[in-house]
Amino acid sequence: MKFIYNTGDDYQDVSHSYYDLYRFDDNSEDEIFFYGYSCCINDAIKKPYKHYKRKVYYEWANPCPYFSRQNDAITSQLYFDEVYTICPYTAEYINNKYFGITKQIPVPYTLRMEPFKKYISDFNNKIYDIIYQGQFNSEDHQIMYNVMKDYKHVICSIGPNNHITHNNISTMKKMELVGQSKISLASNLLYHRQDQIDFVKHFYTDWKSNNALCYIDYGISPQFKSRVMDAAFCKTLNLIKEDPWNVIEMWFKPDKEFIYYKDEVDLKEKVDYILKNFDKYIPIIENAYQKVLTYDIDIQIKKIINKEKMYNE
């Protein structure tokens, strides 16, 4: 299989920046694997390989592209025979609508584990109580801060926000901080502006049949976050905001591999209890660590190359 990677339209220095999938490239002339958002939306990148018998795209943004005016999130993916996507809901929608044209297979946004092994922290060496990494601009994030501020906390993000403790830091530094923290907070949601919601309703007239978009009137849609994998790999407890989809349950089991919280009161109670009884949660952390090892990008790529079934097929 031949591998093509283009980062032109991606965040730089993120988890997938360390995949180095050219390690698997055998210069095939009939099977090709694309990764990087530009490979999906840029026809100039795709055109030279149109004749390939098997064209695969590895997608780590859905349903974000549905809210972008840059391209049509659907037709840009119909070029590919197989799309491995982090969103099971857009996958179901496209598979139902375009059966026989393309096939979408859900996979978890994951890591290449090898570069980050040094950040797996001993439980006795964790110096922070709680960490959050990612966008920090919604009511849910304010609720997180309301609780986090009372503990030794870390907030890693990009942009102007007085609550951020580490702004625009490297992936390596983020992983170090995750490994040094006992709890990792995460919300597997995207938060949308009204103009984005209006655009989706206008451009995708059947948006109600796409389960990823069914709550956009509430300004949210589901997106499995890479920070869940970061925490699981670094042996940090995932404390996850419960939502209408709970997409994390595609890949991890609640109460066995992570913990939910419902609202600000519940979050405060959970954080207090976990920190006072941290040893009780070590089995959950260890379960999540063993599970995340099975999702290593190298394992996924070998499955794709060999045309093996993925985790939930």
Q: Short summary of the structure?
A:
The protein is of the alpha/beta class. The protein has helices at residues 38-41, 43-46, 88-97, 139-148, 171-179, 194-203, 226-233, 264-276, 282-293, 297-305, and strands spanning 2-5, 31-35, 54-59, 82-85, 103-106, 128-133, 153-157, 166-167, 181-186, 189-191, 220-222, 237-241, 259-261.
CATH evolutionary superfamily of the largest domain: Glycogen Phosphorylase B
Rounded average pLDDT: 95
Low-pLDDT parts are none
- Return the CATH topology of the largest domain: Rossmann fold
- The DSSP helix count reads 10
What order do the SSEs take from the amino end to the carboxyl end, as H and E? EEHHEEHEEHEEHEEHEHEEHHH
Largest sheet: 6 strands, parallel
Query: Domains counted in the coordinates: how many?
Result: 2
